[in-house]
Amino acid sequence: MAEEAAPLLELEGVRAGYGAIEVLHGVDLALRPGSLLALLGPNGGGKSTAMRVCAGLHPLAGGELRYAGRKVNGVSAQDAARLGVCSIPEGRGIFPNLTVRENLWAATGTGARLADLEEKAYARFPVLGERRHQLAGSMSGGEQQMLALSRALGTDPAVLLLDELSMGLAPMIVTKMYETVAELVQGGLSVLVAEQFARAVLPIADTAALMLNGRVVAAGPPAEIEDRLSSDYLGG
Amino acid sequence: MSTFLTYTILGLVLGSVYSIAASGLVLTYNTSGIFNFAHGAQAMFGTFLYWHVTERWGWPVWLALIVVVGLAGPAMGAALHAVIMRGLRGTADVTKIIVTVAVLLGTVYLAQWIWNPDEAHTVGMFFGAGAKITVGGVVVRYHEIVCLAAAVAIAAGLRVLFTRSRTGVVMRGSVDDPDLLRRNGHDPERAAMLSWALGSTLAVLAGVLIVPISGGGLDANALTLLVIDAFAAAMFGRLRSIPRTFAGAMVLGLAANYVLAYLPSAGTFTGNLRVSLPMIILFTVLVVLPQDRLRGAAVRTRERYRVPAVRAAAVWAAALVAAVYLYSLLLPESGVTTFALGMTFAIIALSLTVLTGYAGELNLAPLAFGAVATVVAFHFGVEGTGLAARMNIQGVLLAVVAAALVGGLVALPALRLRGLYLALATMAFGEFLSNMVLRDTTEHHLFGTTFTLFPDGSLVVPPLKVGPLDLRDGTTFLMTATVLFALIAVGLAALRNGGYGRRLAAMKDSPAASAMLGQNLVRLKLSVFMISAAIAGLGGVLMSSATGTVAQENFSFTGSLALLMLVVVAGIGYLSGALVGGLMAGVGSAVLVSTFGDLALANEGMATIYTALGHLVLVGTALVGMGVGRNPSGFVHDIIDGYRAMRDAKPVLYGAGALGAVLYVLALTDVIGTWTFALIALCAAMLLPVVGRSYLAERRTRPVPLELAGVDEPYTDELRARLDRELGLTAALEKGGARVTA
Ligand SMILES: Nc1ncnc2c1ncn2[C@@H]1O[C@H](COP(=O)(O)OP(=O)(O)O)[C@@H](O)[C@H]1O
Ligand SMILES: [Mg+2]
């Protein structure tokens, strides 16, 4: 990486926690424009907390959160979303008691048009089109995740934050989801993915970072991190 | 035919108002997940405001409507959301319900303070009662047409809002996952505030519309309950669907009027049935309509309780009995009687601790089970007449069994229900009982016997006599009640520590998980409900006999709610919470209010101030109840934590003990008054943990022992370094930061 562009999203020395318990002890991360950064590490390492910090949902106790070089500590999640940070939470990022179409409607809060969202979502995932009037909570896990991902398709964000896309899904579907993500990256989107299962995301990642006990202990090309992973935490 | 038409129109009109009230309820429930028990109270308050500006200030109707329905209504709702409701995210159902109940009570107390209940307040129809048209021989008033039109317009408008507008979609989304709404660029608090404002407006509108068609008289309690009748309509739509709520409201209104039209009007039966019909329908709808599935994941809530150890409970129980005895020596005869009454309330409160604190289920009508037991004991357990009359032990036992059985019967059909619905079922039962049984003063003939359930509208309940133990004596009564409280409390502690108690706790934390582990939830819920009802029955009989003469008011819905609220405020997960909450409900407010009442009578000059103080006490307790959202575990929890920390501060404890003994001797020898003693003792008990903490802080030069480091403090680098140093791990750490594989 010679001509490094300025990062779109950056964490520097970020500390955060729940009540008196600190979970992130100074995290450094940088997401370059148009790249996919995979944040890897075992359960409980603090990946989700870091993702929530990036999305403006969790207060920082120290350090800096920067969007495109600007310090935005304390930004609200609404504002983060309007600034073009599309974040999809762990679990299912959908409203189970709304229909598929109503879910897409709710996703227009950042200024997109419902018609555009529907068109792009149904084109990419035809099954959603067939179920547009079904309650989202009554769909299968994979379909729900497709719906969640549709928000990234239609709202034209600058940064996409994805937490555990693979959680509870069949490998086939995970592969398909990450194909979609890879296409988005090719289209110029910058993506930060938190994953426990490195195999799913490493093939499409540009950079990877390893998070252990609330610290990023290594960052670099995916191949390097993969070696590190298998020796350090998978135990060979 | 014309009778039928007339009653149909009246039914539709009543249904319209129910529909307006119920849709407000559905709106707030769907956006905030809070079932607003205070909905009726908001309606009541708004209607009083309307009365005030039209009757007292003489404003024209249109101006009053704009100001009260258009401005005060939304303002009230928005304020409720901003100050109270938004703080309730992440709390248990119980806490949410109690906070709205506190708002209900506070609003009623406030209204009775501002608008003297002894004066008549009447609200007239729009365009006057004389403005009417005649259609097919049936007279229809303009006001009634307004009701019908408003209800149709509102139902249609809400349906459109919910399904055809993004605002409505966002509102519905905010209950599921407010954070996800934020990620989508919306402000969930704005959506929630909007819905509270709209819901409150609908409540006020319903109040202004319903008072004229139900007689015109405005009474704070009655109007609040009248709007609560609309709960049944909301339940038709499972608290979700506006069209079904509308249909349910019409069924409700029609049924109420057909009962009046076609059932015999002799006796009290038809009138009572008419009043309790909405609650009967509510109960039926709850039981018959299909249920939500059990929630998959455990709900992570903010309430935390410690489990009592049996031995500690026994020690505290003995200490309680001793303390009460010593204190009773200081009290005059009347004081002992009041104290005994409070102790009977504490026993009823124990029924809530086991049911809500341990098992996570709710009973909104504990006093109703006390009423069942009282009626049974009165009919089967009284020997002798006049002053020589006594209750026998068989009567009490039979009463307790009856309460348990009725508790089982009420709970059985409702057992599949989730917390809120079960709570509503108990509320429906309580109201039904209050209207059908406690007002039933007519003679019945059954199996050749003639009896009256509630002769003259009140029962004289004599004190209990078992062998040589005669509760006619005040102190004996007090001590018996205290010992019973202590015994039941220790029994409950044992229950909680046993396998049964652990199963209850598991069910409370995650019904789905414990069902999956093979627990029979139905049997578990049924049994705990019956245990709870039995305790409430015992407490109820004692409460009745401590009161002497009881009537419908002694078992009222608001009474039950006030008791429940105070117990939650004190800490419903604790046996001591039951004691404190029960005493507050039975003694606290009654004593304070009557004291201020007496003071007001005694000094005419200060009368207004004292009366105001009396009202302030009531509103104040409700305010405390509203604060439960901030501290959902109750204040007893904080005090206990304070004392727990003091185990190391022995000198402070001994000093406090000595101070207590000195004060007591002073009080016993009449050097200081009983009130002074009580106040000083209470303040000292509250302040002791604070003193202890500063004492401990001074002594904390010794560092935390190694094995306790990091247990109740954040795990800092410093601490880690210290651990490594003392464990001799310095070398390992220096080898490479990334190799900390913990
Ligand atoms: N709501 C919460 N309250 C308290 N602690 C939490 C909460 N959520 C996560 N934690 C703790 O924070 C740590 C990091 O969690 P998380 O960020 O979810 O890690 P990951 O996503 O890598 O599995 C864990 O130790 C977890 O127990
Ligand atoms: Mg995670």
Fold and architecture overview:
- Chain B: This is ABC transporter permease.
- Chain B: The chain crosses the membrane at residues 6-27, 34-53, 59-85, 97-115, 142-162, 191-214, 220-239, 246-265, 271-289, 309-330, 336-355, 362-381, 393-412, 419-438, 477-495, 526-543, 555-575, 582-601, 607-628, 649-666, 672-692.
- Chain B: It is found in: Cell membrane.
- The complex is a heterodimer of chains A (236) and B (742).
- Chain A has a domain at 12-84 and 157-233: Rossmann fold, CATH 3.40.50.
- Chain A is 35% helix and 26% strand.
- Chain A is built from nine helices and ten strands.
- A six-stranded mixed β-sheet of chain A has the order 6-7-8-3-9-10, sandwiched between helices. In chain A, strands 2-1-4-5 form a four-stranded antiparallel β-sheet, with helices on one face.
- In chain A, a hairpin with a 2-residue loop joins strand 9 (207-212) and strand 10.
- By secondary structure, chain B is mainly alpha-helical.
- Chain B has three domains: 2-275, Orthogonal Bundle (ABC transporter involved in vitamin B12 uptake, BtuC); 310-438 and 451-465 and 478-648, no CATH class; 706-741, no CATH class.
- Chain B has helices at residues 2-32, 39-56, 61-83, 93-114, 142-164, 166-176, 178-183, 188-213, 220-228, 230-236, 242-262, 269-288, 310-330, 333-358, 366-380, 393-414, 419-436, 474-497, 499-509, 511-516, 521-547, 557-570, 575-602, 607-626, 635-644, 650-668, 674-699, 717-727, 730-734, and strands at 132-135, 138-141, 382-383, 390-391, 443-446, 449-452, 458-460, 465-466, 469-470, 549-551.
- In chain B, strand 5 (443-446) and strand 6 (449-452) form a beta hairpin.
- In chain B, helix 14 runs antiparallel to helix 23 (575-602) and helix 15 packs parallel to helix 17.
- Chain B is globular.
- At the A-B interface, strand 2, helix 2, strand 6, helix 3 and strand 10 of A face helix 6 and helix 7 of B.
- The complex binds adenosine-5'-diphosphate and magnesium ion.
- Residues 18, 23, 41, 43-49 of chain A line the site of adenosine-5'-diphosphate (ADP).
